[in-house]
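Quick review question:
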């Protein structure tokens, strides 16, 4: 962040007074959420094998086991390495059926990501309620509280309460007030259950994706914390925390080999690897901003500095980079490959987990983002709201494949979305992609 301006980007009267307090609190809350996620993620990939975090009972799914497993997942796609880790950590033998191993893998990843999801939801919900009063805060968020409240989830709940309190204890470093006493289980559950709004066309609500890009998070790769304020069906504020966003854009494309490669390319200390940012924008301001992430290991300072971000000026498809989901089950890679060919895109697609794709467009690190989910899949508002505001204010265009704006007024889903989501740095590229979708849609299998 060498070229960073020493200003508050949108605060201190630079921006219209509208929503300035909401934006200020939202940015700090997302910074804290990123801090929380980083602590969990560091545990996942730490060399200490996370022994200190072991659960007290002897159930096979210990946090320590999850740590070593996730480390294996983060650093290797080789099934034998993952199997080896399972053997050591859980006493599972090589004879265990592949299907069973896969079930175990999925459930371990789910435990870790759910713990983080709930912890972030509780933390953000608590911070918003403290700042604006719980009666005034309505939140739509990805995770519900039911499964965490079950008797069987007592250990998980205990771990969530600890994670939330550890994070809230750091609130003063982010210029916010934490609780006077550590929150109890019921307060944490109450904070999570306040995230029970269903959205809709009128009034004000927040849309929160506590961890977007779940697989990226578990693998130590890209993920995002996304918070948007939606007023009368329109997103008015967008805040996107990207804890692993690399300052060298080439590193975005390394995907799950990320850690291995980063460790070869950079000096070994994490301080010297300048990564992570929080981007934010207010609708209609014509400005989008980026703050560096306040790293937990450094002496934190607030107010934090910010610099404006802008979309790329590239209009020539041959020079443009397009990004898309990593998982082909989330978006058709073959359809976008056809589109890329027909509009003359020459570079390899940049496959990145999570709303970091929106951040990459807003920062000018890529020019096009496309997502075409399978027929029948309904896109959720929290997967897009924050990113849309930020790209638009950074100078870009986001619509569905019919050229209409995404509609955030219909509840939890982007109802009526025409085929897919297309975000571009500029109108010319956008028109070309829309035209190419129309030309090839009928012959596609989507
Ligand atoms: N089947 C299917 N089709 C389309 N989209 C789906 C599907 N399943 C999930 N999701 C949603 O996609 C969110 C992650 O999207 P990404 O663009 O980051 O995809 S990827 O992880 O890079 O593959 C992901 O968000 P998180 O759950 O927050 O990770 C989901 O909301
Ligand atoms: Mg998501
Ligand atoms: Mg999520
Ligand atoms: Mg999810």
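Suggested answer, residue by residue:
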């Amino acid at each position: 962040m060498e070229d960073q301006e020493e200003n508050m980007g949108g605060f201190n009267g630079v921006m219209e007074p509208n929503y300035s307090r909401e934006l200020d609190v939202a940015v700090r809350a997302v910074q804290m959420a990123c801090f929380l996620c980083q602590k969990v993620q560091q545990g996942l990939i730490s060399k200490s094998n996370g022994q200190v975090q072991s659960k007290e009972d002897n159930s096979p799914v210990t946090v320590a086991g999850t740590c070593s497993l996730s480390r294996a997942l983060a650093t290797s796609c080789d099934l034998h390495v993952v199997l080896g880790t399972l053997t050591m950590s859980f006493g599972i033998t090589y004879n265990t059926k592949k299907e069973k191993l896969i079930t175990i893998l999925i459930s371990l990843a789910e435990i870790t990501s759910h713990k983080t999801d709930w912890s972030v939801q509780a933390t953000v919900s608590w911070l918003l309620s403290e700042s604006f009063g719980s009666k005034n805060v309505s939140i739509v968020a990805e995770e519900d509280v039911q499964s965490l409240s079950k008797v069987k989830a007592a250990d998980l709940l205990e771990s969530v309460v600890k994670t939330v309190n550890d994070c809230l204890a750091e609130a003063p470093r982010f210029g916010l007030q934490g609780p006077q006493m550590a929150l109890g289980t019921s307060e944490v559950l109450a904070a999570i259950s306040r995230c029970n709004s269903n959205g809709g066309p009128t009034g004000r609500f927040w849309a929160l994706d506590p961890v977007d890009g779940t697989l990226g998070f578990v693998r130590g790769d890209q993920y995002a914390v996304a918070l948007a304020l939606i007023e009368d069906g329109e997103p008015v504020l967008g805040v996107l925390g990207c804890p692993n966003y690399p300052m060298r854009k080439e590193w975005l494309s390394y995907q799950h080999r990320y850690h291995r490669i980063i460790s070869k390319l950079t000096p070994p200390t994490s301080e010297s690897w300048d990564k992570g940012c929080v981007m934010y924008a207010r609708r209609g301001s014509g400005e989008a901003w980026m703050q560096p992430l306040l790293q937990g290991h450094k002496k934190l300072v607030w107010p934090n500095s910010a610099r404006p971000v802008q979309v790329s000026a590239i209009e020539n498809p041959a020079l443009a980079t397009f990004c898309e989901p990593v998982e082909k089950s989330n978006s058709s890679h073959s359809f976008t490959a056809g589109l890329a060919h027909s509009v003359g895109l020459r570079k390899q697609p940049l496959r990145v987990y999570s709303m970091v794709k929106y951040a990459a467009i807003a920062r000018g690190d890529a020019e096009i983002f496309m997502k075409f989910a399978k027929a029948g899949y309904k896109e959720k508002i929290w997967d897009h709201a924050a990113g849309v505001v930020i790209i638009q204010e950074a100078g870009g265009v986001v619509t569905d494949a019919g050229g209409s704006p995404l509609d955030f007024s219909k509840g939890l889903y982007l109802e009526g979305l025409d085929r897919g989501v297309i975000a571009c740095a500029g109108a010319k590229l956008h028109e070309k992609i829309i035209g190419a979708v129309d030309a090839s849609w009928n012959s596609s299998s989507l």
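Why it works: The radius of gyration is 21 Å. The longest helix spans residues 98-132.
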